């Protein structure tokens, strides 16, 4: 199913590329409200279900502000600002206040600490992936997790970036109907195509797409061996800001079964509102900012003949500062108080050589070498 959805999405995106919908739009943002609930028939006894299945009866809701824009370099960026939720996350999970996707990687900002995790780190957990770095933003003082793209992820981004530069940002939201030549391309790929004044239908044995030209809607259905699995209905309304019919509501119905064999519907509804074109373009490279944060770990004097003063980023929790030799042997270790930004260490008794300072805050580690004369 996932591969099928990707296929249809990219297929439609390819056709929109020829139209370059809203190609002059450099930014678009809107409010998004997602709700999830289930529907069952009256003859299903909820008491017969597993505990994890009973949790499905809780209505879930998430409200965010979504932004898509081209940065100063012309690359596609996007951000999600978290507003509120109902039953969407467990009590121990702290959602990111904002997640930003750039050409360098994924940056997640956190405004609240997590009382359930060691070190108070926000989110669900800190991972030790070498592509993930943690720290505190020097300007906002928010804690962040930054995940660099792998080579494959970077290549995927570059491919997607080129497509969006061709299609324009409105291709995510606009009501677009394949023209005559594009419908012929569908036919060559084995689809059955039907056209009238009111409807355009494109289908095969696994999925169908029906555009209603009167009420500006698109209905997609997905099948497996003739059995209906999913229905997605998208409704569009005219937007004066962008002078286009943009999506206003989307309902996705998944037809599923409990472990008892009883059928139910999972209904996911998304509303789109407050479209604007004044989104703030975040013209920065997070990878560069991370390097800047690394440089905030400084040692003075370096070289030294006895003592050193270590300056490091401010953390909301205490930090552990270590001095090790090049073999990794621990020589000196001290703890700093929360919000401390410097510490002096006495090294009179250590022989001449090259040493390594490590500043550890939970699983975030900053390192720097110095020379003892």
Give the topology.
Layout: H1 2-19, E1 27-39, H2 51-54, E2 60-70, E3 76-86, E4 98-101, E5 105-110, E6 132-136, E7 143-148, H3 151-167, H4 180-188, E8 192-195, E9 199-203, E10 207-212, E11 217-224, E12 227-239, E13 244-257, E14 263-276, H5 286-295, E15 298-300, E16 307-311, E17 319-325, E18 330-336, E19 342-346, E20 353-361, E21 364-372
Antiparallel strand pairs: 1-2, 1-14, 2-3, 3-4, 4-5, 5-7, 6-7, 8-9, 9-10, 10-11, 11-12, 12-13, 13-14, 15-16, 16-19, 17-18, 17-20, 20-21
Query: Helix share of residues?
Result: 10-25%
Count of DSSP helices? 5
Radius of gyration, in Å, reads 27 Å
Largest sheet: 14 strands, antiparallel
Describe this structure in words.
By secondary structure, the chain is of the alpha+beta class. The chain has two domains: 2-276, no CATH class; 296-372, Immunoglobulin-like (Sandwich). The protein is 16% helix and 44% strand. The protein has five helices and 21 strands. The strands form three sheets. Strands 6-7-5-4-3-2-1-14-13-12-11-10-9-8 form a 14-stranded antiparallel sheet, sandwiched between helices. Strand 17 and strand 18 form a beta hairpin. Helix 1 (2-19) packs across helix 3 (151-167). It starts with a helix and ends with a strand. Mean pLDDT is 82; it is low at 1-11, 13-19 and 281-295.
């Amino acid at each position: 199913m996932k591969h099928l959805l990707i296929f249809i999405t990219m297929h439609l995106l390819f056709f929109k590329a020829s139209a370059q919908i809203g190609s002059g739009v450099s930014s678009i943002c809107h409010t998004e409200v997602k709700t999830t609930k289930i529907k069952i028939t009256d003859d299903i006894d909820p008491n017969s279900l597993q505990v994890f299945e009973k949790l499905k009866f809780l209505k879930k809701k998430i409200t965010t502000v979504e932004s898509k824009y081209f940065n100063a370099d012309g690359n596609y960026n996007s951000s999600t600002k978290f507003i509120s939720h109902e039953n969407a996350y467990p009590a121990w999970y702290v959602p990111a206040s904002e997640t930003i996707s750039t050409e360098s990687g994924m940056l997640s900002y956190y405004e609240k600490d997590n009382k359930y995790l060691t070190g108070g780190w926000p989110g669900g957990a800190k991972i030790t992936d070498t592509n993930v770095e943690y720290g505190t933003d020097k300007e906002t003082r928010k804690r962040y997790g930054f995940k660099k793209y792998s080579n494959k992820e970077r290549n995927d981004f570059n491919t997607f970036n080129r497509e969006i530069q061709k299609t324009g940002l409105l291709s995510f939201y606009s009501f677009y109907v394949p023209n005559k030549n594009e419908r012929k391309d569908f036919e060559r790929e084995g689809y059955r195509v039907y056209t009238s004044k009111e409807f355009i239908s494109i289908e095969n044995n696994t999925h169908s797409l029906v555009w209603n030209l009167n009420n500006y809607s698109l209905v997609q259905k997905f099948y497996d061996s003739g059995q209906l699995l999913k229905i997605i209905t998208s409704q569009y309304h005219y937007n004066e800001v962008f002078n286009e019919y943009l999506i206003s509501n989307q309902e996705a119905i998944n037809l599923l079964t409990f472990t008892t064999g009883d059928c139910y519907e999972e209904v996911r509804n998304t509303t789109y509102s407050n479209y604007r074109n004044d989104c703030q373009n975040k013209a920065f490279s997070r990878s560069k900012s991370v390097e800047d944060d690394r440089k905030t770990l400084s040692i003075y004097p370096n070289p030294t003949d006895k003592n050193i003063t270590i300056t490091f980023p401010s953390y909301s929790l205490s930090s552990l500062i270590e001095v090790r030799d090049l073999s990794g042997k621990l020589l000196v270790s001290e703890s700093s108080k929360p919000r401390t930004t410097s510490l002096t260490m006495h090294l009179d008794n250590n022989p001449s050589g090259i040493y390594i300072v490590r500043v550890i805050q939970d699983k975030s580690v900053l390192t720097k070498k110095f020379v003892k004369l």
